[in-house]
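Severity: low
Component: inverse-folding endpoint
Summary: output formatting inconsistent between runs
Steps to reproduce: submit the following structure tokens with default settings.
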């Protein structure tokens, strides 16, 4: 009987510690404009994280009304993934770092524009810090190249992923989910 109580107490303690760990990583500024509560994994970042803001029409207040959307909603050209500041970013594919000069301050102080000419896309990543690569550099798959930040982000630490045509602007942005290979963790 006593052993059963000790096991039960230990189990409850583990559950409590697990919930505290999750709460400790939450940024109080995070606002989720998605009903999707799934924590996704990707070869592009460490850990599992929720989508804050999906691609497409949104009620998030940061975007001007867009004719593609109803009810005066704006259009979000990427996917924002909530993650603690400092979360490592990895190259999910081989790529080259290209100029970020065309990206504005909304992407933060150190945005990245990464190119895979073979597959025909640029990946824009906003809200990074401690960028470990430089323009012109080739980056091999699996290489850690930056960390997540809240630079330029009013809603806490996260990363913004935006897939564009090579050299293209916002009008060429497409849904980046397949490129990011977001999956549910296996249990």
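Observed output (run 2 of 3):
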């Amino acid at each position: 009987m006593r052993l059963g109580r000790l096991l039960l107490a230990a189990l409850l303690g583990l559950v409590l510690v697990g919930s505290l760990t999750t709460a400790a990583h939450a940024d109080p500024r995070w606002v989720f404009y998605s009903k999707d509560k799934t924590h996704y994994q990707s070869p592009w970042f460490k850990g599992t994280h929720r989508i804050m803001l999906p691609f497409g029409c949104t009620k998030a207040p940061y975007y001007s009304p867009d004719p593609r959307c109803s009810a005066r909603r704006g259009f979000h050209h990427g996917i924002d993934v909530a993650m603690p500041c400092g979360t490592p970013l990895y190259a999910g594919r081989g790529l080259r770092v290209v100029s970020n000069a065309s990206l504005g301050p909304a992407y933060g102080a150190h945005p990245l524009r990464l190119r895979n000419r073979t597959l025909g896309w640029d990946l824009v990543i906003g809200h990074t810090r401690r960028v470990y690569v430089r323009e012109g550099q080739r980056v091999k798959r699996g290489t850690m190249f930056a960390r997540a930040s809240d630079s330029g982000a009013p809603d806490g630490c996260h990363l913004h992923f935006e897939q564009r045509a090579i050299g293209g602007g916002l009008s060429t942005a497409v849904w980046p989910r397949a490129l990011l290979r977001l999956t549910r963790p296996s249990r």
